[in-house]
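Table S2 (text version). Query chain:
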Amino acid sequence: MAIPLADIPIEDLSGERCVPCSPGRLIDRDEVESLTAQLKAIADQTRLQIIHLIDQAPAGELCVCDLTESLDLAQPTVSRHLKILTTAGLLRREQRGTWAWFSIRWDALQELRKRAFPRGADSSPF
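Corresponding structure-token output:
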């Protein structure tokens, strides 16, 4: 049920003024590009699912073949997503014979959080 706007009280704050404060310093341009690349790597449904699946794996690592089966995607598609995550520094790749195994670089995720959200990094153990 919609509420008519006329019935919503409006608080008059016209007497108050915004007093600008220093919001802090901007992130360096190179740092922003690096952070953006990592955040873009995570901000994809398939890649987020890959990270989730690896995190849930009992050994903390999965083979490409495990991921293709779980995601119901072709091996080249999964490999492309894994390459993006690995290039962004978020996954570790280990070649074992024919197959590549992937694990999460927790240190990289912690560093990403610390660099992107410095105030929040001190308040949580992640």
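Notes on Table S2: The two ends are 42 Å apart (CA to CA). The first helix runs from residue 29 to 42.
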